[in-house]
Amino acid sequence: MKIGELGRVTGTPVETIRYYEREGLLAAQARTEGNFRIYDASHVERLSFIRHCRSLDMALDEVRILLRFKDAPGENCGDVNTLLDAHIGHVAARIRELRALERQLRSLRERCHDARDAAHCGILNELSQPPRQGASNEGGHVHGVHGGARARNAGK
Amino acid sequence: MKIGELGRVTGTPVETIRYYEREGLLAAQARTEGNFRIYDASHVERLSFIRHCRSLDMALDEVRILLRFKDAPGENCGDVNTLLDAHIGHVAARIRELRALERQLRSLRERCHDARDAAHCGILNELSQPPRQGASNEGGHVHGVHGGARARNAGK
DNA sequence: CTTGACTCTGTAGTGACTACAGATTGTTAA
DNA sequence: TTAACAATCTGTAGTCACTACAGAGTCAAG
Lengths: 156, 156
Known about the structure:
Two copies of one chain form a homodimer.
Chain A: H1 3-10, H2 14-22, E1 30-31, E2 37-38, H3 41-55, H4 60-71, H5 78-110, H6 122-127
Antiparallel strand pairs in A: 1-2
The first copy, chain A, binds a DNA duplex through helix 2.
């Protein structure tokens, strides 16, 4: 199969597949005479693996590690558990952080119920004060609030 | 005051201040003879405002909108409330999404309690299956799991 | 007068894609 | 046969909010 079909089967944009190849995650060994990439069932499985990991918000570096375990079937998989536990920890930490953030935002919102002139807006005035320190996500690798789980919106 | 002091006072890296200037958020009107930027108390307040907004994970485009309200004190501030409500909505949506993600990760983790060889690892096998569809964060602007609230780690 | 701290401009890197431009290859209809 | 069109190719630039330099200039203290 060619790249377009692989994309359709796995729900992955074609350009993302080529990006994974540049990143060394998924290489097509063969090409047609006309230089088109050729894939088979093993590529479908490998790409599904990658996309599943990404849908679980793992970084590509984490996926790379998991792929190494897949490629070495005799190895002990204890480190897989370790990696997953760490990832769960990061997600849990980010949830705690966002909950604190939500509380701060709601208390800020309390300061201005009615629309009036901006000069007396409690929200704008409060924002001019330095922020109080909150959770700071020291060791983790968890994103800010903007952006989103793009992997799943691929088709639209 | 010069850029270093402004950075110290507001807890902002110097290069970030220059970045905000390039982005049109905070301009130093004056320079010294030696071409150094000069700031005063109004800049401290404006930068504090920006940093406070960022510590609440607002995008710079959102901050830009709020700054416009600050710069037009006679205007009605109803849209400030609207913006903040939308932002709270995005944060809440991201929390829901991450909670669903955490459940999926914990159920995945259940599949392999003991370290054994990777060929029979329940986690690796499960990941090779296509993901089930979950929350997808359609309209929002909320990030993935990696990265983090960098604004607060500025000093280290 | 030299050392060192500070500042300047400009450019490149981050992560995980996304979006082109411009060329080539393959498929189908007239 | 030819023309249109879809699919693919390579390569580069853009996204966001910074961060990290390089290389040059400015300034205060010893």
